[in-house]
C-alpha cells in the first residue's frame, strides 16, 4: 500500500494515465483530428458547461463558423446569436476578437506555440496548454480544477487549492508525471478521469486506472482532498427593469461593454414616473451568476398610446421589437425566459 507521496513513482503514474487514455478516451467530435481551431472552440464552450449540454452548441457553432476565416468575417451580433443558451457571453465576444487577432497577427493561421496562443483574447494558461499539448505536442500541463482534484487525491496532497500559488504548485507536480511523448493524451486523460471517474462527489475509484497508486484511496481519505480553505465570494445584486409593451411590440436596448452581460440586449431600466400607473404586473426573478446572486424585478408596463410608446422609444434610442425579432438577438437568460413566457400566454 502506498501511503507516502515521497515514495510515489510520478512518471509511472503518468504513463498509466496516458495508456488508459489510449483505449478509454471519450469519443468527442473535436477529438477526431487535432485541429487547433476545433479544440479552441470546444474548450471555450466547455468552460462553464458540461459536455452533455455543450455538445449541441459546439456542433452548431462549428457548422456555421467552420474555420477562423468564417468567424472573422461574421458580425459580433451573429457570433453572439450562435452563443445563445450558453451564457457567459464575454466568451463569444473574445472568440470573435481573437479571430481578428489571428488574421491580423498570424496571417489567419492558428498560432502553433503556447506563448503565441496565450496572446489571444480570452485564452488563459489552461486553454493555451490544452491546445499546445494536444495539437502541437508541447509538454505543458493543462491545469484546472480537475487537475487539482485528481492530483491532490493521488498524492494525498493537502496544498490549498484556493491560494494563488496552487496553479504553479500543481503544474510542477503534473510536470513530474508527464511523459515526454503524448503530452496531449496525458492532459486529456486527467480531463476525462476528472469529469467521469474522479468526480467531486462519489468518485468511481474501482474503475480508476491509478487506484493502486492513489494514496487517498488506499488510505481511505478521499473526502479530505482537495483542500480548499477560502470560499468563492458571492455578492447580492438587485436589478430593476420595465418591460414596456404596446400591442405585440416591446422595447429593448443593447448593453455596453462593461460589468455583467456585456453586449446583450435588455429592457428599459427606467420609465417616466407617470408610467408607474401603467404597470399591470410585476415579478421578481432570482438568478445566480458565478460571483453574484441576482434579484431581478421586472415590471410589465402596457402603453395604449402608440404615440407615447414611439416617443419614448425614439428619445431613448430603444429598439421596438416583436417576438420574432427578439429571438434573433441575444438576451441574458432570465430576461429571455421572461419575455418568452409572456408570449406563450
Ligand atoms: S482512485 Fe479514486 S480518488 Fe484516487 S484518483 Fe482514482 S478516482 Fe480519484
Automatic annotation (TrEMBL):
Required cofactor(s): [4Fe-4S] cluster
Gene3D superfamilies: Helix-hairpin-Helix base-excision DNA repair enzymes (C-terminal), Hypothetical protein, domain 2
InterPro entries in the record: A/G_AdeGlyc_MutY, DNA_glycosylase, Endonuclease3_FeS-loop_motif, Endouclease-III_FeS-bd_BS, HhH-GPD_domain, HhH_base_excis_C, MIG/MutY, NUDIX_hydrolase-like_dom_sf
Cross-referenced Pfam families: HhH-GPD
One GO biological process term: base-excision repair
Catalytic activity as recorded in UniProt: Hydrolyzes free adenine bases from 7,8-dihydro-8-oxoguanine:adenine mismatched double-stranded DNA, leaving an apurinic site
GO molecular function: 4 iron, 4 sulfur cluster binding; 8-oxo-7,8-dihydroguanine DNA N-glycosylase activity; adenine/guanine mispair binding; metal ion binding; oxidized purine DNA binding; purine-specific mismatch base pair DNA N-glycosylase activity
Keyword Iron: yes
EC number: 3.2.2.31
KW Plastid (keyword) present: no
PROSITE patterns, sorted: ENDONUCLEASE_III_1
Keywords: 4Fe-4S, DNA damage, DNA repair, Glycosidase, Hydrolase, Iron, Iron-sulfur, Metal-binding
Domain of life: Bacteria
HhH-GPD domain segment(s): 45-196
Family that this chain belongs to: Belongs to the Nth/MutY family.
Primary role: Adenine glycosylase active on G-A mispairs. MutY also corrects error-prone DNA synthesis past GO lesions which are due to the oxidatively damaged form of guanine: 7,8-dihydro-8-oxoguanine (8-oxo-dGTP).
Protein name: Adenine DNA glycosylase
Organism: Epilithonimonas mollis
